[in-house]
Design a protein that fits this description.
binds guanosine-5'-monophosphate, single chain, globular, alpha+beta
């Protein structure tokens, strides 16, 4: 999948669309999901142009990758969900229903999150 510079998260990164920011550093931006599916629902994105976790893993710098993982842990602490539990999820492509083609992870928490996946088999 080629990177689309007009995707919504790219526009948020350029400041063309607003967001409710919860964290930012040199490599990462995190903000609240516009349609939250848990009391805490944060989206973390790298500032670089990556479409998926496999793209990010293969082509991002070590500094970008380290910053991203560290940000997940910091936000879990900052949002007060580290002790009670939380879930980190990344969708990619059609089977996972990815809506925005800029690599991102969702961080969910704040209540019982239920089963990990719909059981279809
Ligand atoms: P995906 O299905 O691609 O993993 O998730 C995309 C997420 O982006 C959805 O949870 C959706 O609610 C969120 N989203 C879509 N547009 C916007 C927006 O303009 N602002 C914010 N904060 N979240 C958005």
């Amino acid at each position: 999948m080629a990177y689309d510079r007009n995707n919504i998260f790219a526009r948020i990164l350029r400041g063309e669309l607003p967001c409710s920011k919860v964290y930012e550093d040199e490599h990462v931006l995190a903000f609240r999901d516009i349609n939250p599916q848990a009391p805490v629902h944060v989206i973390l994105i790298p500032k670089g142009e990556y479409v998926s976790v496999d793209d990010f893993a293969a082509t991002a710098t070590a500094a970008e990758q380290a910053a991203f993982i560290r940000a997940i842990g910091r936000i879990a602490q900052q949002e007060g969900v580290a002790a009670g539990g939380y879930r980190v999820l990344a969708n990619h492509g059609e089977a996972a229903g990815q809506e925005v083609p800029h690599f991102h992870v969702h961080l969910f928490g704040g209540h019982d999150l239920g089963p990990m996946l719909r059981r279809a088999v």
